Amino acid sequence: MSNRNETVPQHIVLAFSGGLDTSVALVWLKERYRCRLTAFIADLGQGEELGVAARKAEKLGADEVRVVDLREEFARDFAFPMYRANALYEGQYLMGSSIGRPLIAAAHLRVAEEVGADAVAHGATGKGNDQIRFEMTFAALRPDLTVISPWREWEFASRSDLLDYAGKHGIELDLSSGDRPYSIDSNLLHTSYEGEALEDPAQPAPEGLLFRVRDLADTPAEPETVEIHFEGGNPVGVNGESLSAAGVLQALDEIGRRHGIGRLDIVENRIFGMKTRNIYEAPSGTLLWHGHRAVESLVLDPEVAQLKEELMPKYTALVYRGLWFAPERLMLQTAIDFSQQNVTGDAILRVHRGTVQVIGRRSPHSRYDTAFATFEADDVFDQRDSSGWLRVNTVRFRAGRGTAPVQP
């Protein structure tokens, strides 16, 4: 156990997805601890696989199965705050998995409280990021609770070992879908793929693996215009229709899927310092990120916008490393949210064959003034005033007699 003590758990709540790792974990936990086990399944928008996972948990021996609908909470309280920060890990990754984990862990604890469990367990591997995200949340919210991480305790060293165990214990696997030893994670924001053949970063993804967005060859020949309405930094409507938080992500997801938006193949640096090859498909997240920045460009004070850009990598690192409930993330969120008070308006995007182009933006709080921006004659800016600014800001060059460092 991660929290070492002499107490044998009486009731474990296992975060269960129905894939290979958690299926083996459920049977292994029951076999080892011989106690009551509740399977907790978090609904972040996975769709039909939720029912499959629930039936599977029952068949594998779970004493109780809890499926908890977290879609609105995920969009409103986790995804939207992150997108108000324009968070982007290593300049590319929109962190669809990273932001889901703290919510799953927090809901996991709520279920444990409801059923009176004295331990929680997860199926994250011992060298991956998710164990950190789950257990940072557990520690921040319920440091007294016993945490069991099977991957850090059992004798198995690989997913091949898990397949062998599954075969010996009658755990049925559909290796043509979610049970194959790829790691696939889906929610309202994205789908991620890693493992097996994807571990060779020089090789393209196997045919038929990626399923969320259309291949570019199958996308419509004509572009589509999308309008996203924001209020206080949050998207509240798409194409003139007011929607709930989850509804916004679902609407953007459908549009993005159709046009092949948001597919990304990268090598990223994990928390432990190793590199991993991942493929992400994030249609709704990609459209939301571009739209939010478009409205911000109209309304933010220039210095506030620059400071926000400087804070973003730090904020992003906190989210990626599972520190959603840490005081430093909450402090940065307060600063970011202060900047969002006037981020109200519309972003107009054109999507076409995998590309997103901002073609317009408007806001009642726009700071854009044609009178200042025009190249035509105006009566609000005396161009001769620039001379004084330039004289002051070039003092150091003139004082140094213009001796700039010699270029190599």
Automatic annotation (TrEMBL):
- Molecular function (Gene Ontology), one example: ATP binding
Reading the lineage from the top rank, the first entry is Bacteria
The record's annotation in InterPro entries points to: Arginosuc_syn_C, Arginosuc_syn_N, Arginosuc_synth, Arginosuc_synth_CS, Arginosuc_synth_type_1_subfam, AS_cat/multimer_dom_body, Rossmann-like_a/b/a_fold
- Annotated GO biological process: argininosuccinate metabolic process; L-arginine biosynthetic process; urea cycle
Q: Which pathway, per its entry?
A: Amino-acid biosynthesis; L-arginine biosynthesis; L-arginine from L-ornithine and carbamoyl phosphate: step 2/3
- What's its EC? 6.3.4.5
Note whether Phosphoprotein occurs among the keywords.
Answer: no
**Which residues does the annotation say bind L-citrulline?**
Y93, S98, N129, R133, S183, S192, E268, Y280
Question: Where is the Arginosuccinate synthase-like N-terminal domain positioned along the sequence?
Answer: 12-172
List the Gene3D superfamilies hit by this protein, alphabetically. Answer: Argininosuccinate synthetase, chain A, domain 2 (3.90.1260.10), HUPs (3.40.50.620)
Alphabetized UniProt keyword annotations: Amino-acid biosynthesis, Arginine biosynthesis, ATP-binding, Cytoplasm, Ligase, Nucleotide-binding
Catalyses:
L-citrulline + L-aspartate + ATP = 2-(N(omega)-L-arginino)succinate + AMP + diphosphate + H(+)
CDD domains in UniProt = ASS
* Domain annotation Arginosuccinate synthase C-terminal: ranges: 182-397
Chain positions recorded as ATP binding sites: A15, F16, S17, G18, G19, L20, D21, T22, S23, A42, G123
Q: Which PROSITE patterns match?
A: ARGININOSUCCIN_SYN_1 (PS00564), ARGININOSUCCIN_SYN_2 (PS00565)
User: What GO terms fall under cellular component here?
Assistant: cytoplasm
Q: Does the keyword Acetylation apply?
A: no
Annotated L-aspartate binding sites: T125, N129, D130
The record's subcellular locations are: Cytoplasm
Q: Which family does it belong to?
A: Belongs to the argininosuccinate synthase family. Type 1 subfamily.
Quaternary structure and interacting proteins, as annotated: Homotetramer.
The identity of this protein, by name, is: Argininosuccinate synthase
- Organism equals Actinoplanes regularis
